[in-house]
């Protein structure tokens, strides 16, 4: 089998395992429903709504992916205006209610994060949950990513595969590296800079800063943004040149594109809004420079979700890309070496053993002979 053929078959094999089943969505809805009951038991949250966002809503989650939840104290009617201190107070009350109710473990209050939140682990499949207050920005970003899947379904596959590769190679927030959202922006940028491009510059989908237009009532703001985005997406789809690259070609070129990311980052920033590398010195929004790498959030400019990555960590990230690139073009490429590089030793062990499926139990993966292969489910956002 040629290298591309080996990579292609292995990537599809990985996707068969990591893509969520019907039961994974059901479990997440159960967690959301239970949180709704707890929220209503808190005096200061009577009437508040509970809304998922993040990878679950954008349909970019894996079977063991985290769950992001926003508690809407504005009842979802108006664009929220709660300040950081108010959010901290509300989360402290909610934390007490979660402890009293039970059903989740490892409850951790993170009040000083840019977006204050509660981190918990649910009793259902040990799914990690991040709970924030009035996170409308997160919700609209999630919907935007969901709409991008409508342009090309390979986007979803690539994001899932890149997330798994990143975890297997230490490119994750726990090591001070890229978070899932940053990795998703890298995939978007890769799709914009392919030949021919799969995605347009995001300014061609929404011409201004999305979060700046979250004004008035929540429903009206979301409707205005959705109308502009979906109209421009339809226009792009009608006149684009189709990129017919295989999944393996897209993955290999993605790894190669960022294998020198540390040297490029010295002068250039990644800008999905314009769909190109931008000279940092010429971009006043990014000055003065205080970060090792600049990956601009196209929906909340000029925020940089990679701002916490240090120069030393960026070198390690580039090494992970370069090591994988060399492995992918190796003449001695095998399925087992691919699996160990792309999903890590723990999950690759089950794939190598041709497992029918596995479940998460206290953070470890176990064979699950009853795993259902049914995946013909509606994406969570449509539900």
Can you give a write-up of this model?
This is Poly(A) RNA polymerase mitochondrial-like central palm domain-containing protein. It is a single chain. With 383 residues, the protein is an alpha+beta fold. The protein is built from 13 helices and 9 strands. The strands form 3 sheets. It has a 5-stranded mixed β-sheet, sandwiched between helices. The longest helix is centred in the middle third of the chain and has 22 residues. It is globular and about 65 Å long. The two termini are 41 Å apart.
Helix content: 40-55%
Strand order of the largest sheet: 1-2-5-4-3
**Protein structure class:** alpha+beta
Beta percentage is 5-15%
Alpha carbon gap, first and last residue: 41 Å
Return the string of H and E elements: HHEHEHEEEHHHHHHEEHHHEE
- Uncertain segments are 355-377
Pfam families: MTPAP-like_central (PF22600)
Protein name: Poly(A) RNA polymerase mitochondrial-like central palm domain-containing protein
Organism: Hibiscus sabdariffa
InterPro entries: MTPAP-like_central, NT_sf
Descriptive key words:
9 strands; two-stranded antiparallel sheet; globular
Short description:
This is Poly(A) RNA polymerase mitochondrial-like central palm domain-containing protein. The protein is an alpha+beta fold.
Fold topology:
Elements: H1 3-18, H2 22-40, E1 49-53, H3 55-58, E2 67-72, H4 84-101, E3 104-110, E4 117-122, E5 128-133, H5 136-151, H6 154-168, H7 180-193, H8 218-239, H9 247-257, H10 261-264, E6 268-271, E7 276-279, H11 311-328, H12 335-342, H13 344-352, E8 358-361, E9 364-367
Parallel strand pairs: 2-5
Antiparallel strand pairs: 1-2, 3-4, 4-5, 6-7, 8-9
Helix pairs in contact: 5-8, 6-7, 12-13
Organism: Hibiscus sabdariffa
Pfam families: MTPAP-like_central
Domain Poly(A) RNA polymerase mitochondrial-like central palm: 9-144
């Amino acid at each position: 089998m040629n290298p591309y053929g080996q990579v292609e078959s292995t990537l599809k094999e990985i996707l068969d395992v990591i893509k969520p089943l019907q039961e994974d969505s059901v479990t997440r809805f159960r967690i959301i429903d239970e949180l709704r009951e707890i929220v209503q038991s808190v005096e200061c949250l009577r009437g508040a709504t509970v809304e998922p966002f993040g990878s679950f809503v954008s349909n970019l989650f894996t079977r063991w992916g985290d769950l992001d939840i926003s508690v809407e104290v504005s009842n979802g009617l108006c664009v929220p205006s709660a300040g950081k201190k108010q959010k901290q107070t509300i989360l402290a009350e909610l934390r007490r209610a979660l402890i009293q109710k039970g059903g989740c473990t490892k409850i951790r209050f993170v009040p000083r994060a840019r977006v204050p939140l509660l981190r918990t682990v649910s009793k259902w499949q040990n799914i990690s949950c991040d709970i924030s207050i009035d996170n409308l920005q997160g919700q609209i970003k999630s919907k935007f990513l969901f709409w991008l899947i409508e342009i090309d379904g390979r986007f979803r596959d690539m994001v899932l595969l890149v997330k798994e590769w990143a975890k297997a190679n230490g490119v994750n927030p726990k090591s001070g590296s890229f978070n899932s959202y940053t990795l998703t922006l890298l995939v978007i940028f890769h799709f914009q800079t392919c030949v021919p491009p799969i995605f347009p510059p995001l300014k061609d989908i929404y011409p201004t800063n999305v979060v700046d237009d979250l004004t008035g009532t929540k429903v009206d703001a979301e409707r205005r943004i959705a109308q502009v985005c979906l109209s421009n997406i339809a226009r792009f789809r009608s006149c684009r040149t189709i990129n017919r690259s295989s999944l393996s070609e897209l993955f290999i070129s993605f790894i190669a594109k960022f294998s020198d990311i540390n040297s490029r980052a010295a002068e250039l920033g990644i800008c999905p809004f314009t769909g190109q590398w931008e000279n940092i010195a010429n971009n006043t929004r990014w000055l003065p420079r205080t970060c090792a790498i600049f990956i601009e959030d196209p929906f909340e400019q000029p925020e940089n979700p990679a701002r916490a990555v240090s120069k030393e960590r960026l070198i390690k990230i580039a090494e992970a890309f370069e090591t994988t690139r060399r492995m992918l073009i190796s003449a001695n490429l095998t399925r087992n070496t691919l699996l160990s590089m792309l999903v890590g030793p723990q999950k690759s062990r089950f794939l190598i053993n041709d497992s029918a499926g596995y479940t998460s139990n206290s953070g470890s993966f176990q064979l699950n002979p009853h795993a259902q292969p049914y995946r013909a489910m509606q994406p969570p956002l449509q539900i």
